Amino acid sequence: MKIKIAVNAASGKMGQQVINQVTTHQQAQLNAAFCRPNHRLIGRQVGYTDVNYSSDVSTGLESSDVVIDFSLPEGTFGLLEKAVTTKTPVIIGTTGFNDEETARIKKAGETVPVLLAPNTSIGVNSALALLAKAAKMLGKQADIEIIESHHKHKVDAPSGTAIRMGQAIAEAMGENFDDLKVTDSRFEKRTRKKGEIGMSVIRAGEIIGEHKVLFALDNEIISIEHKAQNRHCFAEGAVAAAVWVAAQKPGFYTMQDFLADS
Question: What is the DSSP letter of 71?
Fold first, then answer.
């Protein structure tokens, strides 16, 4: 039996990519596609499926096995509230949450399975494991810089992926990322401090997503880099994780949990 998937923010760029991935996935089928009320797509057929775009989130969730969300924080919490009521597992690919909002998401995991992923790419999440290994070997002696590039329309900075990379590095070194991160050092007249993790942000053109981490020693540089060629890699990972999380018990999960169990 195929996993019935609902897609939130279905009219967006990522929503459309997820829909395309769901409709070609052997273990999944599209069950609902949500748009905001009064959107021009409401009532129209989704591609060649028998699903119509709808703003009736609660009804769509009740008949779905899992929902995938790539929206904005305010949209995510509206969805999450309904998903807790209908007991529908949730994949959240939305970024830009603060600590308090992340805590609210984790709280929802007490009732339904919730997987929060700043980046659903299999490649990026594999890179996180590599970064942890590099940090254990080099972190204490290297200058660490995370450089992330995205399209000019992205509103949060640094990106959720860049922050997660920084957290993975700090955790591997036994440190707190918030104590080490620096996002504005280039605007200060000072030399780099030992141990800090620099965060550099680029917003330009239509860059899908690029992340590079430098471990700079005095005489050599080690670089770990990931470039998204298109949004398909995010949709591919999200749908695969959705099929997995639909079968999990209530709890708070990450892509690392999914990959470890795959």
Answer: S
